Amino acid sequence: MAPLAAGSAALVGAGEAFAQPSKADEAKSRYMKGVELHEEGDFQAALIEFRRSYELVPNYHVLYNIGQEYFQLGDYSNALRTFEQYLADGGKRIQPERQTEVNGYLDKLRGRIATVNVKINVEGAELRVDDQVNSSPIPGPVVVSAGKRRFEVSKQGYRTIKRTEELAGQETKELVFDLQPETMITNGDNKQIIVVGGGTPPPDDGPPIGPIVGWSITGALAIGAGVFGGIALSNQSSLDELKREPGHTEAELDDAASNARAMAIATDVFIGAAVIGAGLSTYFTIDAVISSDKKDTTKGEAKPTAKVSFGPGSVGVSGSF
Question: pTM higher than 0.85, yes or no?
Answer without folding.
Answer: no
